[in-house]
Amino acid sequence: MAAVLLNLSRNLLRFFALWILNSLWVPTAQVDGDSYIISFYQAAFVCCYVVLITCHFASKLLVVFHQKGLAFYVFKRAVHQLIHAKLDFYHKTRIGTILDVLANDIRIMLSWVCATMNQNQDFVMHMLSASICSCVSVPIFLPFLVVILVFFIPFQTKVNTGVIKIERILKASKPPIFNHFKESIDGIQSIKSYHLEDKMMDKMYQVGDNYVTTYLLKQSFFAWFTSRVFAWGTLIIICLLGCILVVRNVPFFEVDSGLLTLGLIVGLSNTYFFAPFTLAICDLSSEMTYTETIRSFFD
Predict the structure, then answer these.
(1) pLDDT tens for residues 74-129?
(2) Domain extent for 239
(3) Locate the ABC transmembrane type-1 domain: which residues (predicted)?
């Protein structure tokens, strides 16, 4: 509830700040008779922002209630499955895998996955509204946007596939660390009696090196993808600016100056939301791999 109220207050503060800037930016005395009435812009601005705040508040409430019910269901189901599991399950499944699921997978599914899905929902709303507003204000921008998305969507799909494969390798390299710790603690007396400390340390370095190597591979892949994403966003904004210059300087296109300015301001936010949105999709794809082990436990 505190997070919901915080997000609501943040939106209200942003609304009042934009309202003041809007009043100072276009005063009523400077409005020409041929342009739209300033009160119409202000009324449309108020209505759109009220709808945005209402939808955002409702989505936050639904996420809170959903996370509460999901947490209760997952923990209840996990405890029931582990207690009533057959002995073959414990013979085939290492203790490191069970500890990894209980310590990390459930936490990631309840916190990170839900938060990333909610973040993607916000990005989708902002991206769609900005794209629609830009295309309505500058109609010739629509073909360029369609062409860019036709090439970008397959690129995003291949990147998501690569991220999922890397995350599965990273996830598979983590249980051996837990399992080695468990074996070392349980057999500490035998290790000290037979002087096997160096051997256990070498094995620990080996399993740790596998995890660190995969983790660095994931970070390098994300750095490579981030640079490409910002390049795609820059391409979109260059196309938008070029279309606005054409519409403004070619007499064939007759677009109201206020509508053109609105399309430019809203369209610039596409670059701001484009890169985080695509990166959030990759994060969601990688985080969904942590639900595979939980589903296998439930089955």
Answers:
(1) 778 877 887 877 777 777 777 667 776 776 777 777 776 677 777 777 777 777 77
(2) 66-298
(3) 1-266
Handedness of CA 209, 213, 214, 219 (dihedral sign): positive
Measure the CA–CA gap between 218 and 241, rounded to whole angstroms.
35
Angle at 138 between CA 132 and CA 141, to 5 degrees: 80
Domains identified in the chain, total number: 1
On whether residue 20 sits in a domain, the answer given is no
Confirm if 15 and 50 have CB atoms less than 8 A apart: no
State the CB neighbour count (10 A cutoff) for residue 86. 8
Q: Are 156 and 284 in contact (CB under 8 A)?
A: no
Tell me, yes or no, whether 37 lies in a domain.
no
Residue 10 maps to a domain: no
Exposure of 2 by Cβ count < 10 A (0-12 exposed, 13-18 middle, 19+ buried)? exposed
Measured CA to CA, the distance from residue 175 to residue 105 in angstroms comes to: 11
| Residue 138 and residue 248 in contact, taking contact as beta carbons nearer than 8 Å | no
- What is the DSSP secondary-structure string of 178-234? HHHHHHHHHTHHHHHHTT-HHHHHHHHHHHHHHHHHHHHHHHHHHHHHHHHHHHHHH
In a domain, 40, yes or no: no
